[in-house]
Amino acid sequence: MAETPSFKREMLATLPSLRAFAVSLTGRHDKADDLVQDTIMKAWAKQESFEMGTNIKAWLFTILRNEFYSQMRKRGREVQDSDGVFTERLSVHPSQYGAMDLEDFKKALDSLPADQREAVILIGASGFSYEEAAEICDCAIGTMKSRVSRARVRLQELLDINGESDYGPDAVSAQVTSHPHSA
Q: Among 148, 102, 146, 141, which residue's Cα sits nearest to residue 122?
């Protein structure tokens, strides 16, 4: 097994991304860790079916996603965060505007339908192309583009974003930082 060290190295390099995707699917860090572990075990057992030089990240994300939905089918229910427990666990209490904005974003992201949340995370946060994300989700490229578009529109609505002026510091902070103090 001359390729094992290279396979292992490439697989381990994807762990942070896999864990982030798993958290987005499961809503809980402990469940995400279990899902990543199951994914790595399956990938290790099936490493001969992976062709070195191809996209191992997409291959592992596909395994993780399939394992997640397989577990959901076995349980016969979907994970929901109706009482906000998942959202509260994701971050500490905000100490500045950026942290509050991030908390608002996490809540908005969590409120998206699962297929849109998954699509926007694969494209926007994990860096996959539409083609790769469509392959991971086993859907058409047009479906993936539609999901991302709907997710982005919905996030803008939820976050009350109307244009570029809604990004960055608020009006008061902008005045303080853009005008030099007179001596």
A: 148
